[in-house]
Amino acid sequence: MFRVMVEVTMRKSRLLHLVFTVFVLLSFVNGGRAGMTSKFIRSEWPSIDIPLDNEAFAVPKGHNAPQQVHITQGDYDGKAVIISWVTPHEPGLSKVWYGTSQNKYDFTAEGKVTNYTFHKYKSGYIHQCLVDGLEYDTKYYYKIGSGDSSREFWFQTPPKVDPDASYKFGIIGDLGQTFNSLSTLEHYMHGEGQTVLFVGDLSYADRYQFNDVGIRWDSWGRFVERSAAYQPWIWSAGNHEIEFMPYMEEVIPFKSYLYRYPTPYLASKSSNPLWYAIRRASAHIIVLSSYSPFVKYTPQWVWLRDELKKVDREKTPWLIVLMHVPMYNSNEAHFMEGESMRSVFESWFIHYKVDVVFAGHVHAYERSYRVSNINYNISSGDRYPVSDKSAPVYITVGDGGNQEGLAGRFRDPQPDYSAFREASYGHSTLEIKNRSHAIYHWNRNDDGKKVPTDSFVLHNQYWGNNLRRRKLKKHNLRGAGGLATTR
User: Fold this and answer.
1) Which pLDDT score, from 0 to 100, does residue 47 have?
2) Does 334 participate in catalysis according to the annotation?
């Protein structure tokens, strides 16, 4: 009898141990609340800018050859691009030759040219050319410049706007032009990203003085050309684009940025190039400015209110927001700087079921759970963020590699809203599979290899939790096994 009782007790003990183990394992899935702070220590290169004579900033051969070539989307739905470049010595031709066959250009487009001064620096001649009327899902070759100094590139247009169009975005922020920046850029280029969503702080040229400010904008343009000339970079502005330098008699915010990096803001009826929207494949992407007024009735507030009403989740189920300053951040660096913007816009993000919000600014990586803090007010209500299935996932990707270095001091204990965080350099990818699922990766740049460190399956807020999803044919996600799930 005693032996039987011992065996029963041992079985109960093993069962309790199994239940506890399962509970612990489940707590690490996003449905739980067990956030993780990575213990990985990045062995980084010195956070100093690459010397100007480095091959990363190579000037193309030929007299007045076009340089700093980059493209972005040029319209609302992805059938146009804006091609930009600089000629250093004289205007030359502001024309683009393009076609669907290499070395055969059936079409031309005329652009505009301008330049500007910054203190005693005078920019080269900045060309911007809208190429529109393109076909979806088509590879185009284009040529700029003339004679022996001409240069040739190519780009791929997105598939037509469709709820099940698959597409892969890269997300990069706070890049700069250090050797760590080069590591991030090269790691991204070794993947299969089709368009970069850039969350602000481009060149960090504002950390220089006098003529070197403009020179470092030029070097950064040549630095990112290896990617930006071949696929669109969707730009958002950060604090290092402001360039507010009264000691240099320069007090025009965003001057260099606005001259060099155009956006298709007019296509979404925006009144300012710092905030705008585009549709690309199955995604509706909204870009916001963290350094423009966003309280009630200001231009950005009015525009965003109207733009959110235009989002059609039947056509573009994925609703993505880009901004520079994160709304949820548990790093000591820039802690709660996004609070004023959160208090105004977060309720809209909940109401319209935004899928994911990407930000930069903090030089580390962090991902949140689906949480909101919209119930708090000064007299009653929840004082802290709470779990909210209608909320977006907030992701900070300010880890591109700039000269300010990493933000390694996270707040302790880790807040309940924080799912994963690590102070390393890297970039993210969001691979949309169909209207209901996407696969997300954060890739740490570790010892010359692209290491996927934080990964999960993202369920669409509209279709993933909608009854009409049951009427769809099943969409199988191959190769997604073992990933955590974010609903």
Assistant:
1) 87
2) yes
Across 138-152, b (16+ Cβ under 10 Å) vs e yields eebbbbbbbeebebe
What is the structure's pLDDT at 11? 52
pLDDT for position 452: 62
In 3D space, the residue among 211, 123, 216 whose CA is nearest the CA of residue 176 turns out to be 216
| The one catalytic residue among 334, 361, 427, 441 | 334
Do 118 and 60 touch, CB atoms closer than 8 A?
no
With contact defined as beta carbons under 8 Å apart, do 372 and 386 qualify? yes
Q: How far apart are CA 114 and CA 91, in angstroms?
A: 8
What is the reported pTM? 0.90
Neighbouring CB atoms inside 10 A of 226's CB total 14
The Cα–Cα gap between 12 and 431 comes to 45
Question: Token match 């080069």: residue?
Answer: 182
Positive or negative, the Cα torsion across 415, 419, 421, 426?
A: negative
Residue among 441, 385, 435 at smallest CA distance from 415: 385
The letter for the amino acid at 410 is F
* Per-block mean pLDDT, blocks of 10 residues, the chain (487 long): 44 44 36 72 79 98 97 98 98 97 96 94 97 98 96 98 98 97 95 96 95 96 98 98 86 93 98 98 98 94 98 98 98 95 97 98 97 86 90 98 94 96 95 97 76 88 68 38 44
Closest CA to 292 of 328, 254, 263: 254
Task: Say which residue the tokens 């009327």 belong to.
Answer: 133
CA distance linking residue 241 with residue 452, whole number of Å: 30
Is the C-alpha dihedral spanning 469, 475, 481, 483 positive or negative?
Answer: negative
| 306 Cβ contact partners less than 8 Å away, ≥ 6 residues apart | 269
